[in-house]
UniProtKB/TrEMBL annotation:
Keyword presence, Transmembrane: yes
Protein name, UniProt field: Sensor histidine kinase
Entry-linked Gene3D superfamilies: 6.10.340.10, Histidine kinase-like ATPase, C-terminal domain
InterPro entries tied to this protein: Bact_2-comp_sensor_kinase, HAMP_dom, HATPase_C_sf, HATPase_dom, Sig_transdc_His_kin_internal
Domain HAMP residues, every copy: 320-373
Gene Ontology CC entries for this record: membrane
Family matches, as SUPFAM superfamilies: ATPase domain of HSP90 chaperone/DNA topoisomerase II/histidine kinase
Coiled coil, from the record: 361-388
KW Kinase (keyword) present: yes
GO molecular function: phosphorelay sensor kinase activity
Main location: membrane
Source organism (scientific name): Candidatus Blautia merdavium
Length: 590
């Protein structure tokens, strides 16, 4: 494909394009090449600088927020560890006596209340004894508002599967408070201080973390999203209220504790949060990074366009001065190619070399004019000879069949119908002769058809009905004589006569087109298939014995008199039979 395009371009360069166009093309290519190089170099350094600056800024911001996140998580772990070591919590979780547990619940409740007063961002705290299915809850909101009973167990199981059950488990979600707010929930197992590995229950603390609020606020920026993601790729914080939990499609691309990756038109900077299984991610659309570069490219493109227009304007004027005489000759030759053979070159303002070229051009056109005049005269003589020859061939065409009809009618019946036939025959040949005129009015041509049908109906027993629907304004239009009769004859012998019952109808009417006047001969005879009609229209221009001499003759005479585009065309009727349309130049009464 590429080789073919190269060949086509080379052919245009060598054979089609003018010298002026070639020079303009070379100038345009040079300007475009220099501009593309300038844009490419500028874009490379600009993008490199933007990426370096953005990477430095984002990395510093991530490092700062990651350190804060790690400090917060360590602080919450320390708070939970101090609460777990409380004696009332330990005894509440390990006691099996329900009465004793109810007494201890008050102490645990007071301890939780004290912790809530110290930890100002805490929403609620709870101590759960898994073995005996009991818990102590204390919080700024009641159980119904926090929906604690329905949430805590499922939320813990979901996050512990990822983070492990043997250590502190963090949950960043909007599961509590019926999905109306995002909070941080810390789950810490209550182990025995006397028996290694013995787990009695769990301590739960729910807080409004500052880091969560910061991540949430960054969602309002149109170009950046910062969120916390676990090692499985689940986004655990930084989502807006109406967003569902989502899993990142690039988590497998995170290598090491920090770095950046690009995917789906976005740049992701990430950094691991301390020793926790969390990554802080800053997501930036690449379009935002390059928006300034797009503006610079736009300015360069506009500059390139201005330079190209200026260069083309200067080159056109310069080339016009240098090649004005050559362009003048080319324009005159184009006029000749469009059929204007009377054009000549005026060489008054041309140099000596161009004057010789103009003299040769004018001399050649004079010779062409002379040869064209001679050719027209010879062609007119040849057309007249052909027309006379065709006319002389068609006149006796019907004589023999008619004489046979007269002989058959006289021998079989011997009645007055012979007189009618002879009279019709006389009128028929009177129109054929027409005083030597080749063109007769449509009215006389219709009379000729009627006389012909009188003879045929007497011959075949009134099997043909004729209907003529020609407006009066068209009846004096002249057309080549004996145009309709061969078409009617063709309808009888190849349509109606073949029809079962041997009765049929012929209708002659007119149609108008945008640039033509049409006479239609319609019959309801045996008809033809679409393939036969297509073959007939294809072969009508030449003599074909399978088609018949008459319609070829009619079509040829119309074409010789009126020119190409006029003549006969056959069509298949929807109901039955065929129609032939005679296409003539548009004109009314003459």
């Amino acid at each position: 494909m590429k080789r073919t395009e190269d060949i086509k371009f080379r052919e245009k360069w060598e054979k089609v394009w003018s010298v002026e166009k070639k020079i303009q093309f070379v100038i345009l290519v040079i300007i475009m090449g220099m501009t593309v190089i300038a844009i490419s170099v500028s874009a490379y350094f600009f993008v490199h600088a933007i990426n370096r600056q953005n990477q430095q800024h984002t990395t510093e911001q991530l490092a700062m927020m990651t350190a804060e996140c790690d400090a917060n998580l360590q602080q919450y772990k320390s708070v939970m560890l101090s609460m777990v070591m409380d004696e009332s919590v330990q005894e509440y979780c390990r006691t099996e006596d329900s009465t004793r547990a109810n007494i201890l619940a008050g102490s645990v409740y007071d301890m939780l209340l004290n912790m809530l007063n110290i930890q100002s961002n805490a929403n609620f705290a709870a101590v759960v004894n898994f073995e005996h299915n009991r818990y102590v809850y204390n919080g700024n909101l009641n159980l119904a508002e926090s929906n604690f009973e329905n949430i805590y167990l499922d939320d813990y199981k979901k996050n512990s599967q990822i983070q492990g059950e043997d250590n502190v488990v963090f949950s960043f979600s909007n599961n509590y408070y019926r999905g109306e707010r995002y909070t941080l929930t810390v789950y810490f197992p209550v182990y025995s201080v006397t028996q290694v590995g013995k787990k009695y229950g769990m301590l739960i603390l729910n807080l409004d973390d500052n880091l969560l609020l910061q991540l949430q606020s960054k969602r309002t920026l149109p170009y950046s999203k910062m969120y916390l993601m676990d090692k499985e790729g689940n986004v655990v914080s930084g989502k807006s209220f109406n967003e569902t939990d989502e899993e990142s499609s690039y988590s497998d691309m995170l290598l090491g504790d920090s770095g950046h990756v690009m995917k789906d038109g976005k740049l992701f900077y990430y950094q691991k949060v301390g020793d926790w299984d969390y990554f802080l991610v800053d997501e930036i659309p690449v379009d935002y990074l390059y928006k300034d570069w797009v503006g610079i490219v736009g300015i360069l493109l506009v500059s390139m366009l201005v330079i190209m227009l200026a260069a083309l304007t200067v080159s056109r004027k310069l080339i016009a001065r240098l090649y004005a005489p050559m362009n003048k000759v080319i324009r005159k030759m184009n006029d000749v190619s469009q059929g204007n053979l009377g054009t000549r070159i005026h060489d008054g303002d041309m140099d000596s070399d161009s004057q010789k070229l103009a003299y040769g051009f004018n001399r050649m056109m004079d010779e062409i004019d002379l040869l064209m005049q001679q050719n027209r005269e010879e062609q007119e003589q040849m057309n007249q000879i052909k027309l006379n020859s065709l006319q002389s061939q068609i006149q006796p065409h019907f004589l023999y069949n008619t004489l046979e009809c007269i002989h058959w009618q006289a021998a079989s019946e011997g009645k007055g119908e012979i007189s009618t036939m002879v009279k019709a025959l006389a009128q028929y040949y009177r129109i054929c002769l027409s005083g030597g005129d080749d063109m007769i009015p449509l009215e006389r041509e219709l009379e000729h058809v009627k006389n012909y049908l009188i003879i045929q109906n007497m011959r075949y027993g009134d099997i043909i009905e004729l209907e003529v629907d020609i407006p009066e304004k068209y009846r004096q239009i002249k057309l080549p004589k004996i145009t309709l009769q061969p078409l009617v004859e063709n309808s009888i012998y190849h349509g109606i006569k073949l029809k079962e019952g041997r009765r049929g109808k012929i209708r002659i009417y007119t149609e108008t087109e945008d640039d033509a006047f049409c006479i239609v001969v319609w019959d309801n005879g045996e008809g033809m298939t679409l393939e036969q009609i297509a073959y007939l229209n294809q072969q009508i221009q030449i003599f074909d014995k399978n088609i018949g001499y008459g319609i070829n003759n009619v079509n040829k005479r119309i074409e010789l008199i009126f020119g190409e585009g006029f003549g006969l065309r056959y069509y298949k009727n929807p109901e039955a039979g065929v129609s032939v349309k005679i296409r003539l130049p548009e004109r009314e009464e003459e």
